Amino acid sequence: MSESAMPTLSELLRTFRIRAGFTQAALAEVAGLSEQAISVLERGTRSRPRIDTVRSLTAALALTPVEADQFLSVARGKNKRAGTTGLAGRPLITGTTPVPWQLPPAAQDFTGRTAQLEAVVSVLRNPSGTKPVSLVAVTGMGGIGKTTLAVKAAHQLTDSYPDGHLYLNLRGYGPGDPVSVADAQAQLLRSVGVDVRRIPEDVEEAAGLLRSQLAGRRTLMLLDNAADAAHVLPLLPGSAGSAVLITSRGSLTSLPGARQIHLDALSQSETIELLTGVVGESRVAAEPGAAKTLATMSGRLPLAVRVIGGRLAARPTWPIQHLVTLLEDEGRRLDTLGSDETGVRASIASSVAFLENSERALDREAARSLPLLSIPDGADLVVGVAAAILELPAGRTEAILERLADLNLLEAAAPERYRFHDLIRAFGRERAVDVLDPGQRDAVLQRVLRFYTSFAWALQSKSYATSPRIALGTVPFTPLPAATNAEQATRWLDAEHHNLMDRYHQAMTAGLTISPLIPELTLALFGYHELRSRWVEMSKMCGAALQVAETSGMHSVAAWLQHDHAIPEVESGSLDIAATRLLRALEMFRAIPDRQGQARCCTSAAHVLGRLGRVDEAIELATEGLELSLQLGDTRVEGVAYLALGGIYDRNGDYALADDAYGCGIALAKASGDRRLVAKQYLSTGFSHVLVGRTDDALEPILRGLKVAREAGNKELESQALQHLAAVFARRGEYLKAQQTVEEAIDLIHPLRNRVRLGYFTLELGKISLAAGDFTSAVPHLEDAIDILQGLAPHLETTARDLLEVAHQRQPHSYIYRFDEA
């Protein structure tokens, strides 16, 4: 950079003064100088002020240390390079901590709201960075311009908050569920550089971490579309220097210390001014009467004016009066101010009318698609789901979505993912009621469920290729490409899971409560639920779907759902409930008859009955399962039968028989070539040995299982292997090794968002610390475990509470690895 490009003293002083909001006279008064002295310095007449003048100005302008150094250097004639800080006072960022600059672009045609804008800026302006946390809540109806005002104000405040600007849409006013507090905290923490694996699951803990990360920073946070005060309280910073700007349709008067700014509709003149900024002065001047009428018919809402003006700007040959004519049908306009939809229905209807009347086939198709696409709940809409709704190829569907996005009827949220504004979706649903009968609207949801069912079957066929459930599918599916592994497909379903559950619940409350798709989708999701340990969702869906399957005469599906309904109970330790469900499922399989399902159910029931101490029943069922699997030539179920027998023999003390059974199961798994199955056989062997006290015998199979799980890239099985390995170390009294092993397992499980397993591992840390006599460490681990497990795993929560009492009393306690804690 050349010397001439460096800022002069007059330029720096003027920039800093304007940023601080001072006139020359005001700055002179604060700095204790004459107004003439300020004027002379800004004109450049004097370029070498006295050092005490520089110090007075530095204090009055509240310059940062870097800015003060630069100002002093320029005043002394030692012109430093400006690139280290910038005139806005943005400090040089060192290290790896990111500085977020997330504000959306400010509207270039922002109109009116002068008083409200000044009120927001005056409350939040903080040039010195010493003010306590400032809060402003902007409220009003949907489409009134809350976000536009908030973003505009935030951009004017950037100099007061040089350490970053965070933006988060909380989606408080659906459809679908809002962003949860935990998800919002996770996004904010990621934005300020916290590793996703270190983000706490607990809301209070995450709130504390967020406050800690923001402490000492001058950060502006814009929380858009909050549901209520409770939605934002856990997201607020706690230290001086930061500020929060919140928008919401609802009142936020209960938010402590927040300045309330309520927005009403624009004035007539402001509406015309906004329209002029969008379409151009000449067009408004050519049709002033039509412009005034259009301003009135738009409800004087910024959203409506921008949508209508955008259509006009994109079509320079259209007269304004053409839009007025389309909007004259009062039956298609939203109500007057007082409804969240006021004025917006008219603006959206006009956009749709343009599409309907267009000469382009794509436009007319887009208009017809809008009501259909608006029917499903969910935060957003992926191309695949939209294609299923419209029954069109993906390419044509994406073209329609893009055309709707061009007209601001959809938002392109991400590649192949689109989002409705909630008011536009409301309009689309009104239109759907007008043009579609209830059966047609239910058919849309059926097509959505069919799409998810197809994808779930494809995933299950990839991850559980030999699952007998797949044969029960009636929905055709295209196998996943060879290049797409199960983990990649599972991550796609992770991203879409919130939408899937919203639409599943919507179908259950609509006309699809007895649709065969309900049980089939539930059965198809078995592979996903198993891979991600989503036991809560599995239990709820199985319970609802089982009733539909039994009522509909879907006997085989009902039997498998009854079997699968027991799995979450096993995982949560409710073994009596699980046993009842499995024995009922066995009766159902026998009645069909289905020998394959019967064999699998026998082994599952034997495993649970063995853990309950019902040994004779368990051996009888395991033997029956083994005999059936041999008759069927099903080596996979044969291996599971050996696994069940091995566990029963181990608990009976028949170690030789147990080792023979486990050896047979491992040999069958190896012969299958399925590394996941091999790892599970090894780990089950080691687990059984640990439970019965064969600690030394357990080490080898656990280490072998860990090696195979790592080779297969299976994080879930790897974490289970580490769990068992930690138990071996703890049993041996090697507590440091045990602790380190559990911590490694926690690092693995965090990205999988499995709270039950995370709670279990946290409980293990408490048990290990307690056994080691480290009561100081045991207490917080056990408290954390209780917080995580509450309502998810009662038996583990009870164990944690009992051990916490022991820790508080500082009583010695031996490490125990129990059946119902695994």
TrEMBL record:
Q: According to the lineage, what is the superkingdom?
A: Bacteria
Gene3D superfamilies (UniProt xref): lambda repressor-like DNA-binding domains, P-loop containing nucleotide triphosphate hydrolases, Tetratricopeptide repeat domain
What SMART domains does UniProt report for this protein, alphabetically? HTH_XRE, TPR
Q: Which PROSITE patterns match?
A: HTH_CROC1
Membrane spanning residue stretches: none
State the Pfam families in the record. Answer: HTH_31 (PF13560), NB-ARC (PF00931)
Q: Where is the HTH cro/C1-type domain?
A: 13-68
Q: Which GO terms describe its molecular function?
A: ADP binding; DNA binding
- Kindly give the InterPro entries that the UniProt entry links to this protein: Cro/C1-type_HTH, Lambda_DNA-bd_dom_sf, NB-ARC, P-loop_NTPase, TPR-like_helical_dom_sf, TPR_rpt
This chain belongs to the protein called XRE family transcriptional regulator
Question: Organism, per UniProt?
Answer: Kribbella speibonae
